[in-house]
Amino acid sequence: MKKLDSLKRGIVVFLLLGVLTAIEYFLGVNDVPQILLWLIAIFKIVLVLHYFMHFLRLFRKDEGDH
Amino acid sequence: MSAINSTQQQINQKKSISRLGLWLFFASDAFMFGGLLVSRFYLLGNQKLELNQILGLIVTSVLLISSFFMNRAEVMISKGNTKGFLTSLVITIILGVGFLVGVVGLEWADAHFGPSDGAQGAVFYMMTGMHAFHVLTGIIFLLFVLRIGLKGKFTQENHYMVEASANYWHFVDVIWIIFYPALYLMGV
User: Fold this and answer.
1) CATH classification at residue B67
2) Residues B132, B59, B148, CA angle at the centre, nearest 5°?
3) CB contact under 8 A, A10 and B68
């Protein structure tokens, strides 16, 4: 994922989030165990924190915007 | 040359401190949303709220798409593409307004219970209301960024305000990523 251009990376992450949301919806309406919904939600949060919010940038000394 | 390096170092240091402050704000705000999430499970347990599932999926998708465009806006300005930045920012704002209309205008009107109808009313309206308030403040923040952007004041090197507004927008998205299954999908 790091090798991708930042624009393309955004598209890939967005598509992943979309697929996970669709899976989450179908699991939710079919009353599966809640743990699966929690796991998907946590994975989605990690994706947003890492690729959209650039959480690790907080600990970097150099600039490196994208 | 060393004077330029020193100025750049000062700018970077200021930016690092601003980032830390922003993330500390996120942490404190997350505690408030965490309290609301806990109250949902404490008061309702495994009960599923009677909500419009399709509408819930639509508003969630709208917020997700807005997050993508916000990321795109930030990437565009970091590459020096002002036109692309402004276009993506305007799309983000429109989608944000769409989310607000979907939740406050449609979902609240469609719900079979009011804010005073027991625990489920209190939980649902408090969680969605507090989140919608954050979306509203995010839209206002983005409108400020748009105004400054239209004046051409953001550059490839100097655009911390865009980064901060983008992070705030993504934070609001992160909250909804947890609230959406907790309100619409979990329980029986």
Assistant:
1) 1.20.120.80
2) 60
3) yes
Number of domains chain A contains:
1
pTM: 0.93
pLDDT 10s digits, B82-98: 999 999 999 999 999 99
Q: Mean pLDDT across chain B, nearest whole number? A: 94
Structural domain tally of chain B? Answer: 1
How far B188 CA sits from the closest chain A CA (Å)?
A: 7
Q: Is residue B134 part of a domain?
A: yes
Cβ burial of B118 (10 Å; 0-12, 13-18, 19+) is exposed
Q: What is the CA radius of gyration of chain B?
A: 19
The domain containing residue A18 runs over which residues?
6-55
Selecting from A28, A41, A53 the residue whose C-beta is nearest the C-beta of B178 gives A41
Q: Which residues of B touch A24 (CB under 8 A)?
A: 180-181, 185
Among A21, A49, A57, select the one facing B174 at the smallest CB separation. A49
ipTM of this predicted structure: 0.91
